[in-house]
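Quick illustration, no need to memorize.
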Amino acid sequence: MAERLIIIFWVFLVFSNPAKSQIDELFFKGFKGAASNISLNGASEIEDNGILRLTNDTQRVLGHAFYSRPIQFKNSTDGNALSFSTAFAFAAIPQHANLGGHGFAFTISRTKELPGTALPSQYFGLLNASDVGNSSNHFFAVEFDTVRDYELGDINDNHVGIDIDSLVSKKSVTARVF
């Protein structure tokens, strides 16, 4: 199934109680000129108009875009975890109106080098079938999924799930437009 998935991000992270050397705010209004701060691989690209595109019209393709510099999620002074919030907008545009793709995942991980050989489709370019549930994965993801995968316990074909070290969501809710 060929899918054209265009992802547009306006990412805004706010950290409360940051350590003095910690980033207070990370903001991208589009990605024009942001290539030095974003690590791209696979099919991902930053288009001339500043849109971050993670995939293209090729079947079963994946793309990643990671912020290039590490972000601390613990206060370096007292070791307490920092809270954060994020907001972004995206568009998922299937090549055929009645055939969706698997979606994408906003991911936080220790490294941009993901474990094993990541696969597209239901694995979101994060894992493969043998990695699902492996406690050494070390990632957090919010999946925006538009295909129900019974093997991963998806609740339906339009949901948002919280994934910790696995693509079997710890919690899922039906996606809605607000």
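The chain has no helices and eleven strands.
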